[in-house]
């Protein structure tokens, strides 16, 4: 029988979640650079000292928000990827990418959090690890669908595909909009990049491992 969770543990998890949500709200309202532990404590309705029971600093709060949401997005993308079939991969992948954007925006992975990765070193580390896991998902998908490319080649392709996700965020940042056309362009370019992986090997076939070898997803 599973051990019951104590009321103290449940309360601690609730307070921690409240602090994280408050930090995200403060970032949305005041901007990334304006966030302080005092502002977060005020929004969360807790004492400033309570924040340090859960996080060493404000950067740690933001990093955990970012990492948690990226993990949720990866799980969604991986589950959807497993349903894609070779005969209809273009349509199914396009639908999955649209659904993934809806999902991640729905859970609060917004431009506020993504932009924070430009300011905090820990977030850059998390983003880099996420890009490798993202690329590894494409390695698994394309190998399953019958690509003759090596894992290293597919991993490199996956990293290129990931840059298109960042391009969508960049487009929204530069235009100060959230136009769906950016997602549609990402989809078109993703499919364009993938198509050669089913037809022939890359012109510059590399026998050596890339700088960041594939990382197995959990």
From TrEMBL:
Annotated HTH tetR-type domain ranges read 13-73
Note whether Cell cycle occurs among the keywords: no
- Transcription regulation recorded as keyword: yes
Record keywords: DNA-binding, Transcription, Transcription regulation
Q: Which residues bind DNA?
A: 36-55
Give the matching InterPro entries: Homeodomain-like_sf, HTH-type_TetR-like_transc_reg, HTH_TetR
Q: Which Pfam families match?
A: TetR_N (PF00440)
Q: Which PANTHER family does the entry link to?
A: HTH-TYPE TRANSCRIPTIONAL REGULATOR BETI, HTH-TYPE TRANSCRIPTIONAL REGULATOR RUTR
Protein name from the UniProt record: TetR/AcrR family transcriptional regulator
